[in-house]
Design a protein that fits this description.
mainly alpha, about 45 residues, single chain, YqzM family protein
Length: about 45
Amino acid sequence: MNEFKKDIQSKTNDVIDSGLGFVFSFVFFFVIFGIGVLFSVIGQ
């Protein structure tokens, strides 16, 4: 058996981890976009 399968670091599901990563990156870019729109509206 593979030695890495014997001693795994995280027992959580990879789908949950990748979904959380996607959500956090989406929220981050949405906040950056929102700040840009806010400055654009204020600058008019």
